[in-house]
Specification:
The chain is of the alpha/beta class. The chain contains eleven helices and 15 strands. It has two domains: about 100 residues, GMP Synthetase, Chain A, domain 3, CATH 3.30.300; about 260 residues, P-loop containing nucleotide triphosphate hydrolases (Rossmann fold, 3-Layer(aba) Sandwich). Strands 8-9-5-10-4-11-12-15 form an eight-stranded mixed beta sheet, sandwiched between helices. Strand 1 and strand 2 form a beta hairpin. The protein is elongated, with a radius of gyration of 25 Å.
């Protein structure tokens, strides 16, 4: 029959394009666009010139996409990935055209219900969970705990780990500013998509309306905030989850121990005795709750200037904390890293980019980035 060969070509192309789209991952949910039901139709037709002459080996491919919500912030990213999957089809020249719509309420409800049923409450307490969880703690404010959390998360991501971070410092949240985040999480019928910045999936109370007001939560309400961050946010299955805790040994540390008994505590201190003495108390919380202290990070340990290493804040604080926690807890609590004092941490961090990264998101070629890389590798090892 005339045209049957073309129809066979079109049918084969349509099936192959769909298979290629099964490898296009929604950047928020972490599933393929085909698994999520976002590809509703694929139209394939031979391309013709403006004079109506068919162009051999060239086809127009129109992909009809339904996004989870109208105006999805990652619409362009999804479109670019679909374009690439279609345009890189081997052996033929496929010209991609994308028609974008949004799921209706019933379809979205069904998708969210299936995701929630699969996840079931706190996803990080399932047997066999692969995620390594590090809770970053300090005895007092001002030691750079949040900067350590942000740069460590960015380092893990740049090293190729699927990385998530929760700003569990409800009172003094700072991760949104350190990552340059000014948007809110996408809400899919009550399930939140974390905001991704510099490769890290983030959630913070600072991303929500009214977050600039003073927060006076305690007890059950504070614990519920962490539970919501864990169970009402679609995290997927990250390799690493970091929690930036509030300073001290208050309610949030206890909530973390209850919600994430597999978390490992990393205590941040500075060299001077006043900071290290208080830091010990944040590690000793492990005597009251089932948390293992993974180790100690000494921040602002030294400053290299004109070939001379200056110990501006003294020295030995990290070692003191390590030794005292090892004695008190009965197992080795090592000094994991001594991080340099770098003006870039403040200057670059305040611009919304973790200081360990270059502007393209790769790890910078600096002593600071090298220190964080060694720390990340030691933690994950």
């Amino acid at each position: 029959m005339p045209g049957q060969e073309n129809m066979t070509d079109v049918t084969v192309i349509r099936g192959n394009v769909y298979e290629r789209l099964s490898h296009v991952i929604d950047p928020e949910i972490g599933r393929s666009v085909t698994d999520l039901g976002m590809i509703v139709a694929i139209d394939v037709a031979p391309s013709h010139s403006t004079e109506g002459v068919r162009a051999p080996g060239r086809f127009d491919v129109t992909v009809h996409v339904e996004l989870t919500v109208p105006g999805c912030p990652l619409t362009q990213t999804i479109q670019d990935r679909i374009d690439e999957a279609v345009a890189s089809y081997p052996g033929l020249e496929l010209v991609p055209h994308i028609e974008v719509g949004a799921m209706d309420a019933d379809k979205l409800t069904g998708l969210v219900s299936s995701l929630k049923a699969e996840r079931r409450e706190n996803p990080f307490n399932k047997p066999g969970i692969k995620t390594r969880i590090f809770a970053i703690a300090s005895g007092k404010g001002g030691v750079g705990k949040s900067s350590v959390s942000a740069n460590l998360a960015a380092t893990f991501s740049a090293l190729g780990y699927d990385t998530a971070a929760i700003d569990a410092d409800i009172y003094g949240f700072s991760l949104p500013g350190l990552f340059g985040v000014h948007s809110q999480p996408t809400n899919l019928n009550g399930m939140l998509m974390p905001v991704t910045a510099w490769g890290v999936k983030l959630i913070s109370i600072g991303m929500f309306a009214g977050a600039d007001r003073a927060i006076l939560w305690r007890g059950p309400r504070l614990q519920r905030s962490l539970e919501q961050f864990l169970s009402d946010v679609w995290w997927g299955q990250p390799d690493v989850l970091l929690l930036d805790l509030a300073p001290g040994t208050g309610d949030m540390a206890i909530s973390v121990a209850q919600a994430l008994p597999n978390a490992e505590l990393v205590v941040v201190t500075t060299p001077q005795p006043s900071a290290s003495d208080v830091a010990v108390r944040s590690g000793l919380v492990a005597l009251q709750v089932p948390l293992k202290v993974r180790g100690v990070v000494e921040n602002m340990s030294y400053f290299d200037h004109a070939g001379e290493r200056l110990r501006i804040f003294g020295e030995g604080g990290g070692t003191r904390v390590s030794d005292r926690l090892t004695d008190a807890l009965g197992y080795d609590v090592p000094l994991l890293a001594s991080l340099p004092l770098e003006p870039d941490i403040r200057e670059v961090g305040e611009s919304g980019r973790p200081a360990v990264l270059d502007s393209d998101g790769s790890l910078a070629d600096t002593p600071l980035a090298s220190s964080f890389t060694a720390l990340a590798r030691r933690l994950i090892g």
